[in-house]
Structures are given as structure tokens and as C-alpha cells.
Amino acid sequence: GSDEPFTRESSLFAEQYSAWTSGYADQLLLHLMQVGYMALVIPFTIMWFTAGLMLLGMALYQQGTFERGFSKSVLVKLVLASATLSLLDTILGLTKNTILVAFSDVLIMLSAIPMALIYIHIIVKVCQNNPNILTPLQNVGKLAFSLYILQSIVGVLVFRHLAPELLLSLDRWGYMAMALVYSVVQLLLASVYLRYFKQGPLEKLWRHLTFKKYTASQEHKQA
């Protein structure tokens, strides 16, 4: 990592701010470079972590965890694992050793696993008592792809075109407030949209393209 801390007073921040609030063509080139870099890096890094999470989710589904949750003994182990890994991450992150700070990023990913499992347990128990209480979140899940792209578009419009000066003034509480407000907007938008439509626009397009490809493959086999 760089020896220079990445703060708003640093020259690196000024350089990045200028680049990401410049013209559309310049931002498009930066995005293409970023996507190219990620395409090279992901197969060696986060792809394996994501694949592991998918396998873990499949195993939990087969065991009925999403219907019953975890036993008390397993839940205690998850709490201890999450607390221990999070504490180690915090300690390493506060050191001045760049290697230890980088290693703390790995612990963040690992500590997220038992914490996510705890969230799953809580959600399962909540839904057992009141199956409809989380319907607004389920609606968001049904439109996850469309809402994800929409929030990206909104974020780009706000922070790079309409009000780029916010990047110079917002603190952590300001970002948190915006995230919470937009989350509520998404919950309302999803609920209203699904009153009139069964699928999101991008979900429908994705489904159409998938089945179109599957149908073509089946016809080719039969031929």
C-alpha cells in the first residue's frame, strides 16, 4: 500500500476526485480500466470466496437451516467465532504494520461468515413467529438485480454529476443517513412496483435471455 494516507487533504484524493468527476468519456475509460483489472484479479481472489459461500448456502439449505435456524450450542460457537475474529481484525487494523493491516482485511471476510449465519438464524426465528413481517425485504429480493443497477445509476448521477461537492463535505454520518434514506426508498419502490408487475425489468430480460439460450440448446440437441 501507499505510505501516504488516503484522506481528503492528500494529493491522491485530489487526483482521484478530479478524475472521477471529469467528463463522461474520461469516466468511461476509468471504468473500463477498472473492469479489466477486476476481470484479471477476481479469478484468483474473491471468486473462490464467493464459490465457498455458495457451497455453504447449499449445505445449509439441504440441512433445513433456513427453516429451523441453529441450535443454541451452534449459535454460541458462531457468536464466539464472530467476536474473536472481529476483535483480531480491529487489533491488527490499528497497528502501523502494513502487512498486519492487509491481513486484517482477510479477517474481515472471515468474521463476516459467522456473523451472516447469526443474521440468518435471527431472520428465520422472526419469520417463524410472523411469516409476513419481512415481506418488504422479500420484495426487494425479487427485484435485486434491477434495484442494484438503479442504485448504481443514482449514485453516479448524485456523486459525480448533480452534487459532486458532497464527496468533499459528507462525513460518515452523512453517508449513513443517505444510505438509510435510499434503503427506505427501495423498500417502498419494490412494494409499489410488485403491485402492478410480477418481475423487475432486468430480471425479466435475464430470464428471457436464459430460457432463449436454453431453448436453442435443446433444439440443437434434438436436431
Question: Brief overview, please?
Answer:
By secondary structure, the protein is mostly helical.
The first-to-last residue Cα distance is: 57 Å
H/E element order: HHHHHHHHHHH
How would you classify the helix and strand content by structural class? mainly alpha
- Kindly state the percentage of residues in helix: over 70%
Average of pLDDT: 89
Give start-end ranges of low-pLDDT stretches.
Answer: none
What is the tally of helical segments? 11
The major sheet is characterized as: none
Q: What is the number of beta strands?
A: 0
Please state the overall shape, judged from the principal axes of the Cα atoms: globular
What portion of the residues fall into strands of 2 or more residues?
under 5%
Q: How big is the Rg?
A: 22 Å
